[in-house]
Amino acid sequence: MPTLPAQLSADLATALNQAGIELPEGVSADVTAAQDTRFGDYQTNIAMVLAKSQRTNPRALATSIVENFPAESISETPQIAGPGFINFKVKPEAFASLVTDIARDTDGRCGMEKVANPKTIVLDFSAPNVAKPMHVGHIRSTIIGDTLARVARFAGHNVITDNHIGDWGTQFGMIIYGWKNILDQDALAADPIAELLRVYKTINDQCKADESVRDACKLELVALQAGDEANLEIWQKCVELSKQGLQGIYDKLDVHFDHWLGESAYNDRLGPLVERLIDEKIAEESDGAICVFFPDNKALEEKPCLIRKGDGGFLYATTDLATIDFRVEEWKADEIWYVVGAPQQLHFQQIFEVAAKMGHKTNMEHIAHGSILGSDRKLMRTRSGDNVQLTDVLTEAVERSRAIIEEKNPSLTDDEKETISEIVGIGSVKFAELSQHRMTDYIFSWDKMLALTGDTAPYLQYSFVRIQSIFRKLAENEGLDQAGIDTLLANATVALSEDGELTLARQLGRFAEIVPMVLDGHRPNLLCSYLLELARAFHSFFEACPVLKATDTATRDSRLVLAHATARTLETGLGLLGIRVPEKM
Ligand code: ARG
C-alpha cells in the first residue's frame, strides 16, 4: 500500500487536474506531515507555490482545489488555513485499514513498499586499521554503516557491504620489526590482539626516541613492499590474527560484511592506475611526485591529490581510486557510500573529484560523523590516557545491563538474564550512537544510555515487552495458544475513535514515510526519534484506553490489533537499527 501522503498526493493531483491546473515542470504535488495535528494529519502548500504562475491568490486557488478534491479520498474534506495551506484529516477508517495491514502483513514490512528502481549500493564502513585494536570511536562508523545497510536493503536496494580494512599501512614496518625483536610467543598465543598492540606501542615509543629503530622499521617496510618472503609471512599472520579479533567484535555487534577487501587487495592495481592517469593527462609530475591538480575547483585549487610519492610509494588516495575502479567494474556500483569520520573530508573530496575526471558516473557520498567524547568533553580515553577499547565497552555494557535486570526482575532464570543483558546492553550502546545526529560529537554516558525511561534502547525494548505481556495475559485469561491469538487478531475489526487510538494509528502510518528519509540524508537518528515517539504514543494510548479490560470484546480486539501492530513496528524498526528485542525483561 502506498504511504498515506503518497495517496493524498495522488488525490491532490486528481483535484488539480479536475480544476484545470497544470503543474509546471519540476513542481510536484507534495503532501507532508502536519506540524500541528490539531488541524490535520497532513498538509500541502501547493496553493501558495502555484498562485503566482496561476495569477491568482493562494486562498482562491486552495478553494478551487478543495472543491475538486475526490470524495472517496482517505481524507475528510480538506480544510484551508492561514495564507493558503490545505490540511488533510485522515478518515478513521483509513487509519484502521492501515493498522490492520501492519498487524496482518506476514512479510514484516510494516506498510513500507520497496523502491521502484533498486540501486546497487556499496557501503564502505568500519574499515579499521589492523594490528591496532578497535577503539570506542570505531563504533560510530561501524554502527551507522550497518544501520544504513540494513535500511537500504529493507527499502529494496541491492547492498554490498565491504570492510576496507587498513592492512597495508606504514604501521607494518614497526610491527614486523617488533615481531622479529620483542615478540612474546606465549603472550601472542594467549591474547594475540593485546600482544600485537604491546609490540606496536613499544616500538612506536622506541621510534620516537631512537633514530636507528626508526630506520630499521623503514627497512622492514620497504622489504615488505618489495615482496620479502619472511616479512610477507609475518604480515599475513598479523592480518589473520587481527581479523579474528575484529570478527569477535562484529559477532557481538551482529554486524556482517559481504566482503573484506582491505587495502592490500589493490596492491597490483596501483602502478597501472597511476600510469593510466598520467597517460590520460589527469595526473602529472610535480617535484618528482605524481599529483592530480584541480585548477577548476575553488575548494581544491591549492590542494592537489598526491597519488605517487617521489620515492615511488603509493598513498591512501591511490588505493581508494583503485578500489573505486574495482567496485564499479566488478560490482556495477550505482552508489558508493563511505561512512568515515569528518577529518577525512578533504581526502574524499579529492578522490571523488579524481574519479569524476576518470569518467566515473557513480554517485559517491562521504557520510561523515563526529567523535565520541568522555565526560570531560575531550576524546574518550582511559585513565592512563589510552584509547578506550571497543571490546571493553561492549563487555561493560552487558555487565551493567545485567545488574539492572537482576534488580528489576530477579525472578528470571540465569539463562534469560544472560540473553536479555546481551540484547539490552549492546542495544543501548547502538541506540546511544544512532539517536545522535551523526555529525554531533556526543558524550558517552552509561547512565543515560541504560536508563529505562529516557530516549534509550531499554525504553523501546521495554515498550515491546510490555505489549508482549498483554498478549501473555490474554492467553492466560482466555486459555489461548499462539494460533488462537492469531485467529483472534485476524478476525478483529479495527475501529478507532479515542484520541489515544488515533494518535497511535497516525504514528504507525508514519513508519513507511520515515524509512526513506533515513536514506535520503543518511540519518538513522530520524528512525530513532520516530520509534521513541511511537513508544510514547503507545504508552499514552495504553494509559487512556484499557485493552484487556475494555468495555466490550469488539473494542478489546480492535485495541489488541493496535497493540500488535505497534509491537511489529517497534521490532522491525529496532531491527533496522540492528537492535534486538527480548520477550521479557
Ligand atoms: N582505514 C581507514 C581509517 O581507519 C578508514 C578507511 C575508510 N574507507 C576508505 N575506503 N577509505 O582511517
Automatic annotation (TrEMBL):
CDD domains: Anticodon_Ia_Arg (cd07956), ArgRS_core (cd00671). Pfam families: Arg_tRNA_synt_N (PF03485), DALR_1 (PF05746), tRNA-synt_1d (PF00750). It comes from the Bacteria. The keyword Transcription regulation does not apply. The keyword Aminoacyl-tRNA synthetase applies. GO terms for biological process: arginyl-tRNA aminoacylation. GO terms for molecular function: arginine-tRNA ligase activity; ATP binding. Residues 460-585 form the DALR anticodon binding domain. A motif ('HIGH' region) lies at residues 128-138. It is found in: Cytoplasm. It catalyses: tRNA(Arg) + L-arginine + ATP = L-arginyl-tRNA(Arg) + AMP + diphosphate. SUPFAM superfamilies: Anticodon-binding domain of a subclass of class I aminoacyl-tRNA synthetases, Arginyl-tRNA synthetase (ArgRS), N-terminal 'additional' domain, Nucleotidylyl transferase. GO terms for cellular component: cytoplasm. Its main location: cytoplasm. Keywords: Aminoacyl-tRNA synthetase, ATP-binding, Cytoplasm, Ligase, Nucleotide-binding, Protein biosynthesis. Gene3D superfamilies: Arginyl tRNA synthetase N-terminal domain (3.30.1360.70), HUPs (3.40.50.620), Isoleucyl-tRNA Synthetase, Domain 1 (1.10.730.10). Residues 6-90 form the Arginyl tRNA synthetase N-terminal domain. Its EC number is 6.1.1.19. Belongs to the class-I aminoacyl-tRNA synthetase family. Monomer. This is Arginine--tRNA ligase. It comes from Sulfuriroseicoccus oceanibius.
